Amino acid sequence: MDCVELLEQMVSIPSESQNEEAFARFLCSYLHDELGMESELQHIAGKSYNVLGYWKETGTPSRRLLLGGHIDTVVPTPRWKTAPYRLTSCGDELHGLGAADMKGGLAAQLTVLKSELQRTMDPEKDSIRFYRLGNHYQNKIDTLGRSAKVEAG
After folding, report:
1. Which residues contact residue 77 at a Cβ distance below 8 angstroms, ignoring those fewer than 6 apart?
2. Under 8 Å CB-to-CB from 146, ≥6 apart: which residues?
3. What is the rounded average pLDDT of the residues 68-76?
4. First-last CA distance in the chain
5. Could you tell me which residue, 133 or 64, shows the higher pLDDT?
6. Measured at the alpha carbon of residue 41, what is the angle toward residues 39 and 46, in degrees to the nearest 5?
7. Furthest-apart CA pair in the chain: how many Å?
8. 23 in Cβ contact with 12 (< 8 Å)
9. How many angstroms separate the CA atoms of 80 and 123, rounded?
10. Is the confidence at residue 148, as pLDDT, over 60?
């Protein structure tokens, strides 16, 4: 699956602020099934979750990498000119809810991570962590998300 195909799947899953459970579950499964990571959902409140992904470390890692972002989007408005949950090509742009902020960034991170894993990364020697912490649009939930991660370690 390439980056655009992954983004197409991501955009098709609604994840409005404080209603991200379905997308969080998709992301958790992707980290486990496609990247071989241990992955877990950390409940924040309501239908908001942190998504954590990591490889179990053996010894002291030779390299460390932390990837992150948020998974919530705004609610689609009637001003949308394309279907918000379908990735649509408009000239040299891709349109879809969350495509530019932040699902496109997550798809790019995961595509590069998968490529590097196949080429140069060793999960037993490299410390790679993927976190979706907090919630971008709701400061109260954002604080809860970060606090939940800090409290859990």
Report:
1. none
2. 133, 134
3. 90
4. 32
5. 64
6. 170
7. 53
8. no
9. 42
10. no
Q: Which long-range contacts (CB under 8 A, 24 or more apart) does 146-150 make?
A: 148/42, 148/43, 148/44, 148/50, 149/42, 149/50, 149/52
DSSP symbols for 96-120: STTTTTTHHHHHHHHHHHHHHHHHT
Residue 51 in contact with residue 70, Cβ under 8 Å? no
CA-wise closest residue to 95 among 108, 86, 107? 86
Report the distance separating Cα 111 and Cα 43, nearest Å.
Answer: 26
Task: With CA atoms as reference, report the closest residue to 70 among 38, 103, 97.
Answer: 103
Give 20's pLDDT tier (boundaries 50, 70, 90). very high
For residue 118, give the amino acid letter. Q
Residues pairing with 129 in the sheet: 54, 66
Query: Is the per-residue pLDDT at 119 higher than 90?
Result: no
CA atoms in the 13 A half-sphere facing the CB of 107: 20
Quote the pLDDT of residue 140: 47
